[in-house]
Amino acid sequence: MLNSSFIELLIFFGTVFYYLLINSKITRQVLSHYNDSFGVTKFKAMKTPFYLSYTEFEKNYYNLLEQWFEEHYNTSEQDFLKNISDLYKPYISYNDKTDALQINDFIEVKNCFFANSGNFGIAFNENGTTKTKIPIVSEVRTITMMEYAQVVLDKIHLYFQKNDVTMKENESILDYINDRDIITMKESNGFCIDFHKHQKTLPFLHAFLPKFGNTVDISLYRSFYSSAAKIADFIDFKMQSMNAFEESLYCELKSKSLIKVHLQNRNYLTVLN
What we know:
single chain; mainly alpha; 5 strands
């Protein structure tokens, strides 16, 4: 029979083991909570302004960098530059003739229109509804970002008109530039916008579109047109000063351009053979 001292010793060690087990669970929970918090802080996307003017971009660069460090955990200026380069990359390309970056302000969109109904037999049900839908024909067109912005603006105002919508007192056009119903609205004759592709244009649209009104500002677009490549060069200069030339826009876009030319030449030779 076990004596009382041995039983007390078992109870003691059992109590200690239970205490350590409970506390280890709590510790893991606490650490998990903090790790999750750090993860969110580290990868939380800072809404970096999209500047249409190189002068404004250069003037505000260090203020933005300071804000970046305040809002992000365990980061660097190089991370900040990558974040900015992603904003401007869609509007920059490599020019092999000048061996330099240049603005590329074009975007491909589908121009949709209804086919001529006279070419199709359209039958009607007893309730008057059609049994045959008139197909929508589309062709890919290349337009400038200024034209694209005007298309978005026109869609918003057309949606307001059709649905008798009035903006609230605290709203502006910018509150509607990513409304799926508006952006993907199909008109009898107009552009059909790819909503997924549209997401990449939001920083530009937010900076360029007017808060109120029906037309875009041409002078503001001229500023963007003359500034985009300068901003890209500024980013690359900073990258190069950090010995991160391989991360520069110049290096990335030049590589893509060379690959594209190589593939085109190979396809051309294939056709000849």
